Amino acid sequence: SVEPALAAGGPDTYRLLSPPGAAVAVAVTGSSGVAAAAGLYRYLRDFCGCHLSWSGAQLRLPDPLPRLRTEIRVTAPGRYRYYQNACTQSYSYVWWDWARWEREIDWMALSGINLAPAFAGQEAAWQRVYRSLGLNQSEIDAYFTGPAFLAWNRMGNLRGWAGPLPPAWHLKQLYLQSFYGQPFIWCMLHNFGGNHGLFGTVEAINRGPFAARRFPNSTMVGTGLVPEGIEQNDMVYELMNELGWRQEPLDLPSWVTRYAERRYGAPNAAAAAAWRLLLRSVYNCTGVCVNHNRSPLVRRPSLRMDTELWYNTSDVYEAWRLLLSAGAELGASPTFRYDLVDVTRQAAQQLVSDYYVSIRRAFQSHALPELLTAGGVLVYDLLPELDNLLSSHSLFLLGRWLESARAVATSDQEAEQYELNARNQVTLWGPNGNILDYANKQLGGLVLDYYGVRWSLFVSALVESLNSGSPFHQDQFNQAVFQVERGFVYNKKRYPAAPAGDTLDISRKLFLKYYP
Asked: Does residue 248 fall inside a structural domain?
C-alpha cells in the first residue's frame, strides 16, 4: 500500500512488517508507489532469495512465505534515484515495444528508481513545431536521423544520417511515450556504447555516494544510473540500486556471496568463490581503466593496439573454471547460463589479446611460421568457437538485435532501413566509420562475420608483407578493411534470432582447449 505520510515530507520510506495472524505473511507500505515497490523487492531479495535483472529472473518463492520477526523501516538517504543516459535511448531502447518497456518499468520501480527521462515520441512533436514555423516535409526529413541515431540528433551533433523517420515511426513512438549551491545527483556512468565486457568500479561506488553526502554543505539529493547502454553487468547495477537505500557502505565480499545465491536460486561454494574473484579484479577498477570495452577483439586491427588491462587476467580464468565446476548443480538456472557465457566471453577476449601480441611479435621478428600458427589459431578456431558460444544464448545474438529492428517496421522498405540502422550502429557508426566500433557488441554472428573477417584480412596482409618483403601500410589496410566493414552493413544476410547449441558444452570445449 501507499501512505505518503510515511515519509513525513522527507525522502521516500518503506516499511515491512508481518501482521499478527497467519493470513498475511508480510505487509509492504511505501510513501510512494516506487518506495513500496522497492520495499517489495527488499523482501523478495533478502527474505525469499529472489533475484531480478536484465538477463533474467529467479523468482521461486518459498512456501510458506517467510514472516518477519520485527518491523523493517528504511528511509532513502536522498530524494532521488536517477536512471538513464541520453545515449541509452539509442544504444538499448531504440527497438523496444511496450512489452519490453513494461518489464523495464517494473524493474525500475522494484529497484527504487524514481527519476528517469522520457524521450520517446518527441520527434513527432518537433515535426509539428517545424511545420508551424513554415518548414516543408522534405526539409524536416533531411534533419531527423534514423531511429538508431536519434540520441545524437537530439543533442544537436548529428542530422540526417540513416533517416528519414517514416510516419509510422512517429505514430508508434507517440503511443509509447557537484555544483556550488546546486542540488545534484551522484550518478554511476558505467557503460559506453552498450558494449559488452566485464567491468566495474565497485569500491568507488560503494564509498563515493556516502563521501559526497558527508561533504561539508553537500547539496547531494540522490543517486542515479546513467549508462549509455544496458543489459550488461547486472551485478554492478543491483549494487548501485541497493546503495540508493543505504546509509553506509556494504561489506562487498559478503554482499556478492549473497548476490550469487539469489541470482542462481541456490547456494554454491564454487559460484560464490568465482564472484568474489571477479569482484576483486575485473569489477574493481581503482585507477585509470585502460582499454575498458576496447579489446583488440572488437577494434580494427593494427600493429599499434594496446593490450594493457586494469586487472589480473588469471582471476577471470579461475572464475571461469569455478563457474564450469558449478554447472552440474546450477546449469538449469537461466542467469547462471548467461553468466557462464559472459565470463567465458571475457576469458576468450583476453585470449584474443594474447594471440594478437604473438602475431605482432612474430611479424616484427619476421618469423613467418609463428605468425601463421598464431594467426591461424585466432582466425580459424578461437573466433569461430567464441561465435558458437555467443550463439548459444538468446541475449548474445546479432539476429535478435536485427530482428527486433525489423519487427518495428510497418513495411518492407522500413524493415530494410531499420536493419541498416541496427547494423551501422554496432559497426561503422556513421557513413565512413566516423566513430568506428564505438558501440561494439560481442554477438553471435557479428564475431564471425565482422570481427573475424577483419582479423583474417589483417593476418593475410601481414603474411603477404613478409612473403613479398614489402612493408605493411596501415592506411592501405584501412582502405581495404573499410570495404569489408561497409559490406557487412549493407549485407542482406539473415541471422538466427534463436540460440543454438548448449552453453555448458561449448564453454567446456573452449576451456579444455584454451585454459592457460
From this structure: no
